[in-house]
Amino acid sequence: MTAIIEATGLRKTYGDTHAMDGLDLVAQSGCLTALLGPNGAGKTTLISAVATLVKPDAGTLLVGGIDAVAHPQQVRPILGLAGQYASVEPAMTGRENIVHVGRLFGLSRSEAKSAAADVLAKLGLTDAADRLVRTYSGGMRRRLDLGASLVGSPRLLLLDEPTTGLDPGSRLELWDAIRELVAGGTDVLLTTQYLEEADHLARDVIIIDHGKVIASGTPNELKSRAGRDVIEIHPARPEDLAAVAAIVGSIIDHDVNTDGNARQVTATVDEAAQFAAVVRAVNDSGIELDDIAKRRPTLDEVFLEMTGRPAADDTTTTHEGAAA
């Protein structure tokens, strides 16, 4: 495999904040790579550096084999960028938006119209192409914004939390569109705080924290690296959650988590014998259960174990958003 992005020793400082602190990273071509990290970890700074919007203070950065620091003008034509918020013009139709972007890319009017038709079809927007964008749903606007980033036929598409704020249905529609792009040969670097999204879409996952890569691998490799399975118990009655948590805590040394909304108790287990002991103890208590099972950890649980913070931790203050 060849690398679409190779970063070595990248550094970027904003005052006392080390947004990138000797960051080393390789993203392979031919797939979607998910970039995960708590707020302030350096995700957006790295995306901005790859997009040639931010110049690192030190280190080397190759994008498509090109030195992005020394030759940013050669990198930009192979990039597409879509962020958290749709940047399309609501007073224009979907088709007019895409044609306009195509013209900005230097396409002739006929080339821009042809490219717009292709992009709209690829993203399932042909039927709505001649409607004003102000009539589009949030998910449709986000797909149109994605389409605008594809007009120049980018080799690498940078997606910075593109599904933030979307309802579940719109998020699934955008996932399908992203999968089709990757299947069609577009390399994608995705930042997201929805770890389920990374689990579903990414072949490779890179976790960064405090400006450095702390783990990388496929989702399954990262889950295996966590080393412990998770016991998950769903009592039939919400009022039994505390009692179940107390039973689990008396047997397992690790933290026991209670989620009232999901009506579940979870904890990591070191060995099968612990799981069997919990099952016996809960059964002996007479508490009625809807379900009890042992499973592999989710990416959210792996992430929390590796960083000590949840993916959507909003308590970290960052410098002008670039250190996020």
TrEMBL record:
Subcellular location: Cell membrane
SUPFAM superfamilies: P-loop containing nucleoside triphosphate hydrolases
Any one GO molecular-function label of the UniProt entry: ATP hydrolysis activity
Membrane topology: Peripheral membrane protein
A GO-annotated cellular component: plasma membrane
Pfam families attached to this UniProt entry: ABC_tran (PF00005), DrrA1-3_C (PF13732)
Gene Ontology process terms (BP): daunorubicin transport; doxorubicin transport; response to antibiotic
Chief location of this protein within or outside the cell: membrane
Matches recorded under InterPro entries: AAA+_ATPase, ABC_transporter-like_ATP-bd, ABC_transporter-like_CS, ABC_transporter_ATP-binding, DrrA, DrrA1/2-like_C, P-loop_NTPase
Keywords, ordered alphabetically: Antibiotic resistance, ATP-binding, Cell membrane, Membrane, Nucleotide-binding, Translocase, Transport
Domain called ABC transporter: residue spans: 5-235
Keyword Hydrolase: no
PROSITE patterns reported in the protein's UniProt record: ABC_TRANSPORTER_1, ABC_TRANSPORTER_2
NCBIfam families given in the database record: drrA
Family classification: Belongs to the ABC transporter superfamily. Drug exporter-1 (DrugE1) (TC 3.A.1.105) family.
PANTHER family on file: ABC TRANSPORTER ATP-BINDING PROTEIN, DOXORUBICIN RESISTANCE ATP-BINDING PROTEIN DRRA
Protein name stated in the entry: DynT5
